[in-house]
Request: fold
Amino acid sequence: MTLGYRPGDGLLHRTHPFTTASLAGAVSVLVFVLPGVLAPWGLVAGLCVLAAVSGLLPVLGTAAAFSAPFWGFLILIHGVFRDDLGTAVVLAGRISAMLTVFLLLLASVHPGRLVDAMLERGAPFGLAYLFGATLQAVPQLQRRAAAILDAQRCRGLRVRGSLVRRARAVIPLAVPLVLGALAEVDERALALEIRGAGSGARRTPLDPPRDGAVGRLVRWFLLAAVTGAVLWRLLS
Amino acid sequence: MARLSSRLLALIPLAVGINLALGKFASATSLPLFLDTVGTVLVAALVGPAAAVVTGLVSQTAFTIVDGKLMWMAFLPVQLGIALYAGLAARYRMFASPLRAVASGLGLGVIAATLSWPISLLLFGGVTASGVTLVTTALTAVGVPLRWAVYGASLSSDLLDKAVTFLLVYVVLEALPRRMAVRFPAADRSRGRA
Reply:
């Protein structure tokens, strides 16, 4: 399964991060606003074509694998128990479209490029830092949690077996993990001060993503499509 | 966006990392808990509700990105509700004893379930493909109407999870060395020592 950024130079990789993010936002709204079975599945079909022309076909496999449990539960709850297969198909289409567009976004937009694009548009340094530092901190703390668990196992902690035994492992993991993280706060805060995080001055990214007229046009089109669809649903 | 202090900028990514690391542990060991708001509740207890709201916002975004499922962003109001409630609980010294922590955790369980079930029901037909959905499926199978099945499933998981989360934060606050606690403005008040 493919999750996360995949290097490449396809259509979506060349697109400005804001355009791809706008597409994800527009699809997420349109699947709920447009009525019927055809709309969400039509969007899924369109996203499959976009994945193919962008060289991101493996992402579709991940989207299908992520969607499958949802389809299973939807068919069971709505199709079997409530005898309403139509609702299950519509909801499955919505969820599949949202999963596919977001996985395409993750596969084609490197987080660093998105941060650069945000900084170029004048986003505060704090916002950009939170985004980047969080994505770095997550795997770092997951590795640390695994190391703490290994160390506690060496001291006799058992994390398998009954529910009570597994639940007992939470405190020996959580307390060192949290205290270790809190001990790191001062060091990180000092590093941020040295980098001038508190100055509020606007940062200039070294190599911001290029934004062309076509990208801007696509974003305006997406905004018009979403606004039009919402108004049409409200007035009809 | 108001400018965040360097200390808060340093703390929030670590709190989000704690949310996701403990959430992954709970999921990997098949515990009937989420444990994915421990960092948010901790920030509420150490700094206050506003910082906890930012942590909740960043946490839900990070969780959505790491898990690759955009629909989790729909549950953002739940994270924000948890952050605000935890901030208020800390202000009223609810981490002063284990009993108070568990009681306020149970209160949060009711609030979290009440916030999450309409999102789950109206947007996704009650299906989130997690352990909660298994309970929803079982309740629907025995004839419980879908809306109550979704609420019952959310409530059963949230009550336990939030009580354990608050208890865990109480344990961490008790274990917090004095020299570390003084660096966080709300820590002593949350622990009932100010």
In short: Chain B touches chain A through 63 residues (CB under 8 Å). The CA atoms of residues 108 and 163 of chain B lie 8 Å apart. The radius of gyration of chain B is 17 Å.
